[in-house]
């Protein structure tokens, strides 16, 4: 039977969370490293169905059913392989490839690719410890790398000459070109990496599929990476992920930094769950891979403008992957430093403090909006509100989305529209409000901030401290607003009565004009009473 290219099914498994897919069918509860639920393939009351996100398979200890994300979709929905793949591809947001089987030639090409990259890594590492690689070795040692670290990450040196082209002279040029290590110019093949400190790039299985080369003479770009190949795609590759995978599960989070040296130093100084994007800004694919392993992420960026922008990009990318059990935070290294420098000069405790003080996503997004929009103006608040709503619309968990929206509504009401008496200055001071009414109004304000915003000026005049706790209102939104409006009308009538009494006391001073004022007030009182009676009639229906 024809099969899909393994790389496509691997990508599905990489992008989609097994727990999320199965969790759509049955409730799952996390116990230890695995998730448990009642098996969907046989009747049971006690959960014996285990789901391992880390290993990528499920197993029922009751009926023996076992498989991965594809087999579960096939069995649970009673569909064939192709239909299951199509459904999962749609869920992952990726295009279905044509149904095809790998040819022996394709399989052989992949094997040759890995053999060449593995051999090249060994050549580079051997050269690092020769006289030719002395400058590179001195540099990496000064950066705090031990021989054990160099060996573990297989760091090496690419010389100025065409070492790979020469060493693989008997290998067909097209095979070398396919790895990205060699290019062909007017005078024949030449090495892509020359005079570079070399960092091998591993895939999730621990195979070397590409390289990242760092300049040693200060020239730009600082890093160059293997261009995309059949086995390597920068947008889908996370540096250090093969080393960090187990630690991410143990620590129940991942830490994302900006560069590979930072990632390596973090991994070797107590933060083994650290990774970095590779040669490009963080992508949706990177976030999908991380969230599949664990939805708890700490993004650690420089505190400068570029770092803030990178953090904001990460924030918008991670929003569709948020769940109610996600914990996404943002940490910043200030003072023009990076994690590598912090660890070298101040040690692990200083870095731990930075990570521990990371700001939750909901606070980071709120702070970012307040910094970038003029929220003290109506236009600025409108723009900020639109931006927040656009961000929240990306959250696919609608219940969770609604909870965050309610949180922001409260913040907008209490922080964007501060309670200040000077915003409303009636000519005559309004009468005091009884304690029962105060508690009802507090309850309405804290339960329905969107209603409160409509009557902001009036509410801010009542001398009530709205930041004090109040019981949640049991009024419906409609009745809550009717209560506010009716109370507002009653206050207005009281205000008019006070004005009338004041005019009557001064009647002798200017009788003609005051009589006209009294008539106007009486007319307003009559109109307001009619509105109030109408509103009360509506409440009684």
Structure, briefly:
This protein is an alpha+beta fold. It has 23 helices and 17 strands.
Over all CA atoms, what is the radius of gyration?
33 Å
What is the number of beta strands? 17
Structural class: alpha+beta
Give the uncertain stretches in residue-range form: 420-431
* DSSP summary: helix tally: 23
Q: Domain count, please report it.
A: 4
Strand content of the residues, in percent?
A: 5-15%
Mean pLDDT, rounded to whole units? 83
Could you describe the 3D structure shown?
By secondary structure, the chain is an alpha+beta fold. The protein has 4 domains: 6-92, Zinc finger, CHC2-typedomain (DNA Primase, Chain A); 104-232, DNA primase, catalytic core, N-terminal domain (DNA primase DNAg catalytic core, N-terminal domain), CATH 3.90.980; 239-368, Dna Topoisomerase Vi A Subunit, Chain: A, domain 2; 421-540, no CATH class. Helices cover 51% and strands 13% of the residues. It has helices at residues 6-15, 18-23, 69-77, 81-92, 104-128, 134-142, 147-153, 163-167, 173-178, 241-251, 260-267, 284-293, 305-318, 339-345, 348-356, 361-372, 378-392, 398-416, 435-447, 449-454, 456-459, 477-505, 511-540; strands spanning 29-31, 34-37, 49-52, 57-60, 66-67, 156-158, 182-185, 188-191, 196-202, 208-215, 223-225, 238-239, 254-256, 274-277, 296-302, 327-333, 359-360. The strands form 4 sheets. Strands 12-14-13-15-16-17 form a 6-stranded mixed sheet, with helices on both faces. The chain has a 5-stranded antiparallel sheet with strand order 1-2-3-4-5. It has a 4-stranded antiparallel sheet with strand order 6-9-10-11. Strand 3 (49-52) and strand 4 (57-60) form a beta hairpin. The longest helix has 30 residues, at 511-540. The chain starts with 5 loop residues before the first helix and ends with a helix. Mean pLDDT is 83; it is low at 420-431.
């Amino acid at each position: 039977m024809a099969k899909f290219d393994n790389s496509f099914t691997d990508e599905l498994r990489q992008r989609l969370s097994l727990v999320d897919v199965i969790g759509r069918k049955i409730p799952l509860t996390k116990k230890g490293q695995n998730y448990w639920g009642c098996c969907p393939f046989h009747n049971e009351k006690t959960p014996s169905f285990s789901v391992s996100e880390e290993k990528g398979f499920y197993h029922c200890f009751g009926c023996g059913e076992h498989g991965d994300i594809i087999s579960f979709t096939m069995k649970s929905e009673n569909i064939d392989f192709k239909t299951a793949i199509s459904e999962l591809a749609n869920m992952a947001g990726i295009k279905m490839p044509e149904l095809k089987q790998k040819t022996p030639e394709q399989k052989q090409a992949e094997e040759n690719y890995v053999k060449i990259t593995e051999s090249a890594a060994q050549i580079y590492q051997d050269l690092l410890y020769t006289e030719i690689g002395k400058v590179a070795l001195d540099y990496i040692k000064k950066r705090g790398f031990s021989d054990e670290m160099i060996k573990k990450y297989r760091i090496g040196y690419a010389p100025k000459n065409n070492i790979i082209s020469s060493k693989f002279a008997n290998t067909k040029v097209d095979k070398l070109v396919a790895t990205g290590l060699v290019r062909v110019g007017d005078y024949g093949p030449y090495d892509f990496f020359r005079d570079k400190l070399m960092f091998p790039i591993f895939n999730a299985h621990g195979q070397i599929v590409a390289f990242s080369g760092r300049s040693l003479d200060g020239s730009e770009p600082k890093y160059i990476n293997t261009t995309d190949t059949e086995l390597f795609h920068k947008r889908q590759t996370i540096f250090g992920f093969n080393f960090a995978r187990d630690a991410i599960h143990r620590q129940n989070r991942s830490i994302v930094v900006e560069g590979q040296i930072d990632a390596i130093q973090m991994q070797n100084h107590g933060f083994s769950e650290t990774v970095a994007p590779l040669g490009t800004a963080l992508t949706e694919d990177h976030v999908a891979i991380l969230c599949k392993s664990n939805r708890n992420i700490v993004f650690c960026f420089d505190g400068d403008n570029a770092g803030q922008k990178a953090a904001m990009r990460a924030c918008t990318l991670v929003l569709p992957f948020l769940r109610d059990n996600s914990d996404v935070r943002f940490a910043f290294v200030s003072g023009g430093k990076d994690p590598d420098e912090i660890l070298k000069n101040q040690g692990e405790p200083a870095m731990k403090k930075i990570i521990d003080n990371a700001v939750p996503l909901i606070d980071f997004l709120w702070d970012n909006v307040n910094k970038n929009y003029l929220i003290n103006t109506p236009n600025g608040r409108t723009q900020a509100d639109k931006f927040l709503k656009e961000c929240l619309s990306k959250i696919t968990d609608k219940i969770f989305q609604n909870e965050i929206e309610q949180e922001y509504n409260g913040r907008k009401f209490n922080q964007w529209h501060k309670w200040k008496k000077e915003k409303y200055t009636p000519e005559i001071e309004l009468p005091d409000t009884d304690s029962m009414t105060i508690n009802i109004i507090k309850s309405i304000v804290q339960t329905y901030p969107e209603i409160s915003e409509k009557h902001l000026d009036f509410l801010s005049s009542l001398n009530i401290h709205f930041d004090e706790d109040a019981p949640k209102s049991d009024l419906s939104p409609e009745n809550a607003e009717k209560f506010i409006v009716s109370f507002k009308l009653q206050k207005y009538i009281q205000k008019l009565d006070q004005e009338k009494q004041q005019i009557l006391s001064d009647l002798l001073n200017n009788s003609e004009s005051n009589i006209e004022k009294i008539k106007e007030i009486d007319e307003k009182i009559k109109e307001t009473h009619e509105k109030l009676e109408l509103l009360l009639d509506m409440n009684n229906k």
